[in-house]
Design brief:
By secondary structure, the protein is mostly helical. The protein contains eight helices and no strands. The longest helix has 49 residues. The two termini are 54 Å apart.
Length: 206
């Protein structure tokens, strides 16, 4: 999928350049930045959607790992086997499977953990990787840390929902004000259309 996007980002601008040279219309070159900007927006949207899908199961992963660690299970074993808790299409399950494959291939444990969900643009995953690596190095208990990380993620989700709600209310207020302006104009037109025509015909009124 990434290879296809890269190919498209190269092929389409080259085609536009060739068409502009053949037809002798240099203004067609303006389509190149427009196309690249559209691709950037598309890719940014895909990145956001992927991070959002990861976040849906991320808190459940943290809590399940915390429970497993507190029962005495090795954290890495708990992590590499946690994909069974989620559907195969889940972003969390895919990240766990990649981590397990790295362990099975004999990669260094720290490198495997550093690569966990490294392609997911999520602000909390870096904290998880750092805490996991430090806990493995120092032999500290990971359960309490994972629960704190889960609380941080939940607070971030709650804050994001509140922000979206506030922005939605602001948009609704703006649409309401704009609607009232249109309604007032219609009422004035129905009540005295000649006055509206006279006002618009004068430069100051316009």
């Amino acid at each position: 999928d990434l290879l296809a996007l890269r190919t498209l980002a190269v092929v389409v601008p080259v085609l536009i350049l060739i068409i502009a040279l053949v037809t002798g219309k240099p203004f067609l070159l303006l389509l190149v930045p427009a196309f690249l900007f559209q691709q950037y927006l598309f890719l940014s949207r895909r990145i956001y959607k992927r991070a959002e899908a990861f976040e849906k199961d991320y808190t459940a992963l943290l809590l399940s790992l915390a429970s497993a660690v507190r029962t005495g299970l090795d954290p890495l074993i708990a992590l590499t086997g946690s994909d069974k808790l989620f559907s195969p299409e889940s972003e969390v399950a895919r990240a766990v499977v990649k981590t397990r494959n790295g362990v099975e291939q004999g990669m260094v444990e720290e490198e495997v953990l550093k690569k966990f969900a490294s392609t997911i643009s999520h602000p909390d995953v870096g904290l998880f990787r750092t805490a996991f690596i430090l806990a493995r190095k120092e032999g500290a208990s990971l359960g309490e840390c994972l629960q704190r990380l889960a609380r941080v993620t939940r607070q971030r989700q709650s804050f994001r929902r509140k922000v979206k709600s506030a922005v939605a209310m602001q948009k609704l207020s703006a649409f309401g004000i704009a609607g009232c302006t249109i309604v007032i104009g219609i009422i004035q037109w129905v009540g005295n259309p000649q006055a509206i025509i006279t006002a618009f015909s004068h430069p100051v009124g316009f």
